[in-house]
Amino acid sequence: MIEAQAPQPRRIGFLGGSFDPVHYGHLLIAQDAQEQLALDRVYFVPSPHTPLRDEAPSVDSVHRVAMLDLALQGDERLQVEECEIRLPEPSYTVDTLTRLRRKHADARLFWIVGADHVAKFARWHEPQRLLELAEIIVVSRPGDELAVPEGFPSERFHLVLGHPFAVCSSEIRQRFADGKSARFFLPPTVEAYIETHRLYCD
């Protein structure tokens, strides 16, 4: 008699950020992580404010969530998770993952970051606890040097080779402020939303 194999836990990735606004670079990071590590789903987790950054998001979370919904429309692999913007500030990744672990108790969780964030990992709030809650997916670009932060278990870090995309949200905001086109930087639905609501124009 052949014993039935136990079902494998779902593999769920989370990509945090301000998404101010969301652009093709964010979407490529999520797709690269999803495909290369066979994730069942990737959630975009918009933050109210990133503790390691002094600059707060330029527009309200309502607009940033609406733009994410438009950008991800039609792809069931990619969804929005709003739990972080509802947490009291200051909110840290470990707080978000504690809540997500309760919500996805039987899943294998992954937190997706860029290679530049790994060097700062020791400065994150409760990094050891964070690694107990989730594994880290590091999306690198050609030329990035990746080293697992000293003192942390290497098996909790996974490297993904991402597609190069040199544009950042701050450049896109500046283009709107200058009256320039952002057509090839973000989905047309997001561009239309920004123009309709006159975001980043001041």
Automatic annotation (TrEMBL):
Keywords assigned: ATP-binding, NAD, Nucleotide-binding, Nucleotidyltransferase, Pyridine nucleotide biosynthesis, Transferase
GO terms assigned for molecular function: ATP binding; nicotinate-nucleotide adenylyltransferase activity
Pathway annotation: Cofactor biosynthesis; NAD(+) biosynthesis; deamido-NAD(+) from nicotinate D-ribonucleotide: step 1/1
Reactions the enzyme catalyzes: nicotinate beta-D-ribonucleotide + ATP + H(+) = deamido-NAD(+) + diphosphate
Domain Cytidyltransferase-like residues, every copy: 15-175
Record's signal peptide: none
Root EC class: transferase
Keyword NADP (UniProt): no
SUPFAM superfamilies documented for this protein: Nucleotidylyl transferase
Entry function: Catalyzes the reversible adenylation of nicotinate mononucleotide (NaMN) to nicotinic acid adenine dinucleotide (NaAD).
Designated name of the protein: Probable nicotinate-nucleotide adenylyltransferase
Species name: Ruficoccus amylovorans
Gene: nadD
